[in-house]
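Tutorial, part two.
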Amino acid sequence: MMKHRIASIVLTFLAGVMLVGAPPAHATGDKPNIVLIMVDDLGYGDLSSYGAPDMQTPHIDALMASGLRFDQFYANCTVCSPTRASLMTGLYPDKAGVPGVIRQYAAGDWGFLNPDAVTLPDMLRTAGYHTALVGKWHLGLESPNLPNERGFDFFHGFLGDMMNDYYTHLRGGKNWMRRNNEAVKAKGHATDVFSEWSIDYINEQAADKDKPFFLFLSYNAPHFPIQPPKDWLDKVNARDIDLEPKRAKNVAFIEHLDDNVGRVIKAIEDAGIKDNTLVIFTSDNGGSIPHAQRNLPLNGGKQDHLEGGIRVPTCVVWPGKVKPGKSNGLGITMDFYPTLCEIAGVEIDHDIDGQSLAPVWLSGEAGDPDRVLIWVRREGNNRYQGRAYYAIRRGKWKLLQNTPFEPMQLVDLEADPYEQSPMPAKGEVASELTALLMKHIQEAGRVPWQRDE
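Running the prediction step on this input gives:
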């Protein structure tokens, strides 16, 4: 498999060298620096700009206001690893080999990133970008799927999934913090740590005016355990003495995250590179309802294929290039891959599932309202038993299930945007969506998702 992986990178590099000189239709001047901020489990309704009445998130709100905000942007999955696999490959998660969560123990492991897949940082490197990941990886704990093997020139972060503690940074008693391939120990709250490492990287790269950079800043927060610093929790409790304790912790956790996002954005401004830096903000899935996270007015949350589990707050900011405003156009995580390749001037000569949103970002186009979007998640435990469950949307129609054992339900998202009255999956529309889903399952079945023993 590694031979195929090396061959694919070489071919992609050669293609990039030949094609970088011919800018795409939507290229505008020099290649921008790219900072893609992905947070973990942020609910659609858990920012003050998205309607949270108890939340104060001025920095992310300012980012939303200064760029193009998407109100129908989806994560590729309702949990972490699959969405990240789609970001890295431009493919649906199961076609990237990651239909479920990658974990450090075999019994709970439901994915293996396809070693032959050409990653987004692979592609951007062909356009002359220096590529970095700071924060959570969650796509492999060992070779061949370590960040430095999958296109990142620099990695400073956490290989694993969730942290059991934001101060010890351990998972299952193990330290997964790395600087490239070297184990490191860090002091402080992980959100602060990742912000500081990102700021260091931005300052270093800003000094090289001739080489653009791609920074994937991947926070663990606000994924549980909900663990805000004490001073942030004290501030929230003093402001709202009637706030339920579990909710107060979550508000403080997200407000602390917001402050750190603000620190990173300020570093970009202070480095003098704001005007030529494209900033993206998004989440890998919806908020966890049992942990007092908020997805309202949408129904459902993390692990569900209801809108609250997969629709996420998202914006893109590029001064002078992306006009501020709101878009109701459809987008999904895997779209970042072709969009950023187009902006960077790299042509994609292999199959992907994502669609470039460059015309939406740079020219104000509406996008395709009738495109087909598919979701899959595979998981263990008694609720799922190692089986996959699915959803599919085309236009206003959505077919979904929230476990492998419940029947599909049909929703008209125009008539029932909050999915309060799902219908039985019967009739012509349901049959058409089912046929499209079955075709996808057949295609994805060609890709192995288990690592070799």
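The chain is about 30% helix and 20% strand. In part three we will examine how such features are distributed along the chain.
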